[in-house]
Amino acid sequence: MQLRITSRKKLTALLCALGLISIVAIYPRQTVYFFYSTAIQIKDYIHFYGYRPVKSFAIRIPANYTIHGIDVSRWQERIDWQRVAKMRDNGIRLQFAFIKATEGEKLVDPYFSRNWQLSRENDLLRGAYHYFSPSVSASVQARLFLQTVDFAHGDLPAVLDVEERGKLSAKELRKRVSQWLKMVEKRTGKKPIIYSGAVFYHSNLAGYFNEYPWWVAHYYQRRPDNDGIAWRFWQHSDRGQVDGINGPVDFNVFNGTVEELQAFVDGIKETP
Q: Which PANTHER family match (predicted)?
């Protein structure tokens, strides 16, 4: 029985080889093009989709980026920022953290004050974000955010997290988003960053707010700029593991050099 199975496998392999040779003989130009285009696609995959595994962080991290960071909220509970700042693996360390401050018209993240203070004390570049509620006045939301966050020189610009539009049309949503952005920019002296997922961006925000920096969520996919998004930050995973943090955490990269990041944060006004 084993001999018959082995013979069948050999015959199948021989027939496949003969079939491939026949295709090459009949369609030589097309065959060469097929293998060439496949090689190009593999090269592009490595370039655009290229992730390298980093064991300690428990995820694959996009290659060709040197500045890495996380974003956190109450879901990560009490964070040991000293351990976060000390973590190193495969030449990668965390250099910035976006921290949830507020949501809607009333909610203040219970861990914000602690996270805001300790991230800076441990030499991480910090940024604060507000989760936008489409059903609430934009000016009320902006005031809550500005009353909560004490910006200092060297902080990242404010962030507006836009992920839903509720019962609003896309046009109505953009109007309210614009109100929040203008109020916060006037107070901080720096254009806020807009955070959104790639799908939501294309459905509601694409073609607008191009003068603002973008932070795009697009997990395990090609680079966001391949979707026509001029981005500064890319949230590429929601399953990272970091020393000092219980549970999974979002991972991000900055699209630029250390010098470009420094220039990006310069100019933030301290808030009274």
A: LYSOZYME
Q: C-alpha 81: how far from its chain's center? A: 21
What the block records as the tokens of 193 is 């960053």
User: CA angle at residue 239 from 238 to 243, to 5 degrees?
Assistant: 115
Nearest to 266, CA basis, from 183, 173, 191, 176:
191
> Residue 237 CB: number of other CB atoms within 10 A?
22
pLDDT computed for residue 50 by the predictor: 73
Q: Which residues in 216-231 are b (16+ Cβ under 10 Å) and which e?
A: bbbeeeebbeebebeb
Alpha-carbon 60 to chain mean position = 13
Active site residue 109: no
Q: Which of 71, 103, 109, 161 is catalytic?
A: 71
* 121 catalytic residue (yes or no): no
CA distance linking residue 207 with residue 226, whole number of Å: 15
Q: Which of 77, 89, 121, 163 is catalytic?
A: 163
The whole-angstrom distance between residue 75's C-alpha and the CA centroid of its chain comes to 18
Task: Record the pTM.
Answer: 0.80
Q: Please, what's the largest Cα pairwise distance for the chain?
A: 85
